[in-house]
């Protein structure tokens, strides 16, 4: 069945080159990278080759600054908890923003149970953090600032460089959750001036279950997992070599194709934003008009609820994502949408449309046509749709 | 995640719409919290002659409204009063646990519409359409918001998630 995937936020397909590399890696019967014999050497060479590819993608000074993990969630947990624990004697205060991913928010919630204190800075109606708010929030005992590079629900890209110059001046460790940016938009850890940066392989068409954490040389953190001395003692456990090889190839391709991919993504975004008013009325585009991811549009559609919309579009073989509380396992309204000023009702009708390199413009038009019909049907059912809004 | 019957009623909802000058009207839920349902009744000789609904909500909420109206149509007022949340959920071949509150909304909307009808019949019509604040529901010792199923802090009657007041009486 011909399914239009406009939900790349949830899962990206693997590139053919990535699949090939992983299948070859399975067939190669690699040893353990930590072993001293030839089987180990071969595994270790493959591991370090991937580390170099990933290091190049984020422009770290040395590949040694890249720690492989099981994905974005682990990277974030390692960065946030690892620094908090390592710096506990200096202080127990952490600064973050109101729109972070749950990986950050719930790591911090856990730390609060261990007597850490957290200051969360607000965002403006575009979802932008004001760097001076971060500066004001930093205190004597602040040990970590954690702000995301781009927001996964609305796409807004935060002023990371400006915040980094503040944290450097105040001598506070700065972690950036860049899971939805790395491999999608250029991310240069040296130019940004950050200490830690989390990323995952799937957003740039590598396998799920693999990710990494950039750790600037000299940044001290405790491991989450204790055991062997893998990953320079920062992440115990034999490495997921097959996944890491897949991520390495995906990273090389992301660097090589970045320009072409970005041009395609931007054209898709312009098309959606230009055409939407020809298909539906009464909606709000969320996120910053310029400072935002090129592969995402978040739209709050009034008078209807997002889960019904996702189900209706699914009947037309179109996959999109919603931020409706009704579709969330915990039935909670999106903290990101509430933070930028959407009310509960508008948050309920929010779709996140994310495309990838394989999508074509006709996919967008198929989506727009199906959306027009679904919105019409659901508004006819909705008691909120005012008579005055009827065309 | 949904049963075949839920998906059928969601895809082709029965009895959608408004009845002008209804004999009874019931509105429950709150758009601020996600779900809102309005039921309109036309009653003839104490039998439900026609019933229509409007719903703002998820797939389950729409299917519940549709099934509920099918179940109530043609019934006497006395029989319609006996329709419970459980009956609607069962007729839909079950709902996911976190969507059971949608069936509460449906059955409550019908009961509110019937009360509105009875008030009018008794010559005491309400100026505003009747609304009902939903009671919180209990699993074991803990209480949950009827709108969004967030666990309520002990002794609180305001939901920390959707900021709505919930009554402490009832199921």
Class by helix and strand content of chain A? alpha/beta
Tell me what portion of residues of chain B adopts beta-strand conformation.
Answer: 15-25%
Q: How many strands in all of chain A?
A: 13
> Residue share in helices of chain B?
25-40%
Which architecture name of the largest domain in chain A does CATH use? 3-Layer(aba) Sandwich
Family (chain A): Belongs to the class-V pyridoxal-phosphate-dependent aminotransferase family. NifS/IscS subfamily.
Cofactor (chain A): pyridoxal 5'-phosphate
Protein name (chain A): cysteine desulfurase
Catalytic activity (chain A): (sulfur carrier)-H + L-cysteine = (sulfur carrier)-SH + L-alanine
General description of the model:
Chain A: InterPro entries: Aminotrans_V_dom, Cysteine_dSase, PyrdxlP-dep_Trfase, PyrdxlP-dep_Trfase_major, PyrdxlP-dep_Trfase_small. Chain A: Catalyzes the removal of elemental sulfur atoms from cysteine to produce alanine. Seems to participate in the biosynthesis of the nitrogenase metalloclusters by providing the inorganic sulfur required for the Fe-S core formation. Chain A: Keywords: Iron, Iron-sulfur, Metal-binding, Pyridoxal phosphate, Transferase. Chain A: GO terms for molecular function: cysteine desulfurase activity; iron-sulfur cluster binding; metal ion binding. The complex is a heterodimer of chains A (about 400) and B (about 170). With about 400 residues, chain A is α/β, with parallel strands linked by helices. Chain A has helices at about 15-25, 40-60, 70-85, 100-110, 130-135, 160-170, 190, 230-235, 240-280, 305-315, 335-340, 345-350, 360-380; strands at about 5, 65-70, 95, 115-120, 140-150, 175, 195-200, 210-215, 285, 295-300, 320, 320, 350-355. In chain A, the strands form 3 sheets. In chain A, strands 2-8-7-6-5-3-4 form a 7-stranded mixed sheet, with helices on both faces. In chain A, helix 5 (about 130-135) runs parallel beside helix 6 (about 160-170) and helix 10 (about 305-315) packs across helix 13 (about 360-380). Chain B has helices at about 5-10, 60-70, 75-80, 85-90, 100-120, and strands at about 25-30, 35-45, 45-55, 130, 135-140, 140-145. In chain B, the strands form 2 sheets. Chain B has a 4-stranded mixed sheet with strand order 3-2-1-4. A two-stranded antiparallel sheet of chain B has the order 5-6. In chain B, strand 5 (about 135-140) and strand 6 (about 140-145) form a beta hairpin. Chains A and B meet through helix 10 and helix 12 of A and helix 1, strand 2, strand 3 and helix 2 of B.
């Amino acid at each position: 069945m011909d399914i239009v995937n406009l939900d790349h936020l949830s899962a990206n397909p693997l590139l053919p080159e990535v699949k090939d590399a992983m299948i070859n890696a399975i067939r190669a019967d690699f040893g353990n990278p930590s072993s001293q014999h030839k089987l180990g050497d071969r595994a270790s060479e493959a591991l370090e080759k991937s580390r170099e590819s990933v290091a190049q993608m984020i422009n770290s000074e040395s590949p040694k600054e890249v720690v492989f993990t099981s994905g974005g969630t682990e990277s974030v947990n390692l960065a946030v908890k690892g620094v908090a624990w390592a710096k506990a004697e200096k202080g127990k205060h952490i600064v973050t923003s109101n729109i972070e991913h749950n990986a950050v928010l719930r790591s911090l919630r856990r730390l609060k149970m261990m007597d850490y204190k957290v200051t969360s800075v607000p965002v403006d109606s575009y979802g932008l953090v004001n760097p001076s708010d971060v500066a004001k929030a930093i205190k004597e005992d602040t040990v970590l600032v954690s702000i995301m590079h781009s927001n996964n629900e609305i796409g807004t890209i935060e002023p990371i460089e400006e915040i980094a110059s503040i944290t450097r001046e105040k001598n506070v460790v700065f972690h950036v959750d860049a899971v939805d940016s790395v491999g999608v938009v250029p991310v240069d850890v040296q130019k940004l001036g950050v200490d830690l940066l989390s990323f995952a392989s799937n957003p740039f068409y590598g396998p799920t279950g693999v990710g990494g954490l950039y750790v600037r040389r000299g940044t001290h953190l405790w491991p989450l997992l204790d055991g062997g001395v893998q990953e320079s003692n920062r992440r115990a456990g034999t490495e997921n070599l097959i996944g890491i090889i897949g991520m390495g190839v995906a990273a090389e391709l992301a660097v090589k194709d970045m320009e072409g991919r970005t041009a395609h993504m931007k054209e898709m975004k312009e098309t959606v934003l230009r055409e939407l008013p020809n298909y539906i009325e009464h909606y709000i585009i969320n996120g910053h008009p310029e400072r935002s991811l090129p592969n995402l549009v978040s739209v709050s559609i009034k008078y209807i609820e997002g889960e019904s919309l996702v189900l209706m579009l699914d009947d037309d073989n179109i996959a999109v994502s919603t931020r409706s509380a009704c579709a969330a396992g915990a039935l909670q309204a999106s903290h990101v949408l509430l933070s930028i000023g959407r009310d509960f009702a508008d948050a309920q009708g929010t779709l996140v449309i994310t495309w990838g390199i394989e999508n074509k413009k006709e996919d967008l038009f198929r989506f727009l046509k199906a959306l027009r019909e679904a919105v019409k049907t659901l508004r006819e059912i909705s008691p909120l749709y005012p008579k005055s809004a009827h065309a | 995640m949904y049963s075949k019957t839920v998906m059928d009623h969601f895809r082709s909802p029965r009895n959608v719409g408004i009845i002008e000058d209804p004999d009874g009207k019931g509105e429950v839920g709150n758009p601020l919290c996600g779900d809102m349902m309005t039921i309109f009744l036309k009653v003839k000789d104490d039998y439900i002659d026609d019933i229509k609904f409007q719903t703002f909500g998820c797939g389950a909420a729409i299917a519940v409204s549709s099934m509920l109206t099918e179940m109530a149509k043609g019934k006497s007022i006395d029989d319609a009063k006996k329709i419970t949340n459980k009956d609607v959920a069962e007729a839909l071949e079950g709902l996911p646990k976190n969507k059971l509150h949608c069936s509460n909304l449906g059955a409550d909307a019908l009961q509110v519409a019937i009360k509105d009808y009875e008030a009018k019949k008794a010559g005491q019509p309400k100026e505003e359409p009747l609304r009902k604040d939903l009671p919180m529901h209990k699993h074991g010792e803990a209480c949950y918001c009827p709108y969004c199923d967030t666990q309520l802090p002990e002794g609180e009657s305001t939901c920390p998630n959707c900021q709505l007041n919930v009554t402490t009486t009832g199921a």
